[in-house]
Write a structure and sequence with these properties.
99 residues, mainly alpha, GTP Cyclohydrolase I, Chain A, domain 1, 2 domains, 0% strand
């Protein structure tokens, strides 16, 4: 679980910084989150679902909104860790549903 908690800490730090939190506070928050998870679930087997449909739907809706707001497929792909074709597919999927 140490690898997982390192990843959680790294992701929490990135999100806090993305939201404009200062670096020292962001690092402290990220570290506290990892520590809390370690204390709460340390030694337990934890299952984290990979592709929960609801999360993907929310992400896709956010992507469509960002695209409609003027972000490019390249920017969105980098922001969301996807390739450009996936971004185009997500945007096109919404267009098909509204026709």
């Amino acid at each position: 679980m140490p690898g997982l908690l390192d990843d959680v800490e790294r992701c929490a730090l990135k999100r806090a910084l993305d939201l404009g939190m200062d670096a020292v506070a962001a690092q402290q928050l990220a570290s506290d989150i990892a520590t809390d998870l370690r204390q709460e679930w340390g030694g337990d087997e934890v299952y984290v679902p990979k592709g929960a449909r609801e999360l993907i739907q929310k992400r896709n809706a956010r992507i469509r909104g960002e695209y409609a707001g003027g972000m490019t497929a390249r920017e969105l792909a980098e922001l969301h860790g996807l390739d450009r074709q996936t971004i185009y597919d997500i945007v096109k999927e919404r267009r098909r549903k509204t026709r």
